[in-house]
Amino acid sequence: xxxxxxxxxxxxxxxxxxxxxxFGMWGESFKSNISNGNMNTPNHIIIPNNQKLDNNLxxxxxxxxxxxxxxxxxxxxxxxxxxxxxxxLAQNREAARKSRLRKKAYVxxxxxxxxxxxxxxxxxxxxxxxxxxxxxxxDTNSLGFSETMNPGIAAFEMEYGHWVEEQNRQICELRTxxxxxxxxxxLRLLVENAMxxxxxxxxxxxxxxxADVFFVMSGMWRTSAERFFLWIGGFRPSDLLKVLLxxxxxxxxxxxxxxxxxxxxxQQAEDALTQGMEKLQHTLxxxxxxxxxxxGSYIPQVNSAMERLEALVSFVNQADHLRHETLQQMYRILxxxxxxxxxxxxxxxxxxxxxxxxxxxxxxxxxx
Amino acid sequence: xxxVMRMSSEKGVxxxxxxxxxxxxxxxxxxxDLGVNPKIxxxxxxxxxxxxxxxxxxxxCSKPVPAVFIGGKLVGSTNEVMSMHLSxxxxxxxxxxxx
Lengths: 368, 99
Description:
heterodimer, A: 0% strand, disordered N terminus, B: alpha+beta, 4-stranded mixed beta sheet, redox-active center (chain B), GlrX-like_pln_2 (chain B)
């Protein structure tokens, strides 16, 4: 009769400052792996014989029970007992699953720690501004963290990091499929995902603009070359068209007409928003400059300026709306394959700008 | 509100704005770029500003200004105007009212 005991210790959250503990009752080889801080799955996981457990391993893992471990003789067993092959496979699956869980916990821990680090640096900054001397070993700007004490902004910066990673992955995928063969339905799915990914960015920026519109407008969350081309917190819709259009091989007459109209209307909308922004700047400047000379108090000017600044959030949202609509219209005008090429071109353009920023930042470090 | 209905039909293209609203100004610039000379009502300069605001919201505007009427019918605010322009449906609408 097989024992029903299991010898799993529940997965622990691995704190990055804690040494990884041994998992009690497992084999020696596993112990040495773990004490080296090794996150890899051990080669053997000792499980007692019980076929019924194979499908229920996930439920059993949370119970650590005492009992004698059963050692397996791998070679002899599997040739004589095919059910032991099944068991071995199940063990491996379970080991892999646990490994994934541990990794997930570790990553979550890292992300929490990163947020905490951002907060600590912001507090340091605040202390410095208040005149306390703080060691200047860490320059918050060089680490690229936000200068505000805003949790909405800290969250946005982290989300944006993930967004860029996913963007890079999508670009790779598009590149691969466009060089090979892919049916139209699958390609359409890729294209729609890429579009949704951009729309997701606009949604994220809308929340961030509510948290701190100056931050979004400054483009501090982007690389330096991208910032150079910034228009109301992002790329110019007309630039988007300039990047895409050279990559379309053959356009029908209707497409040419539609593209022409889109170029013109996009430019007109952009110009209108630009002029609106200029008016906002003028009125804001007038607000701040108003009042008698030498009044001493600037509170009335600051208060009226604060009211004006609310309008800035609307402008950022409108600019993103324009970007959204431009992408949407291009998608409507082009075929699926053309849209895929366009999205690839756009993605690569931004990747190149980011690469330009890094090269520029490191240019002085090269030995001459 | 009768006043709003009357004001919105005064001319082919009518825009309700506020003098402090820069987004309204942007919409105004866009129509002028298209060759239209819209009638501008700065509701903050009107004694019945509050009522006009409420009436515009009741008509379906998410924000009272800018509110764009073409041919006496409400087209929408900045969002709607921009979407329509990019999808090439704004120009045909304003064609009868070009200067």
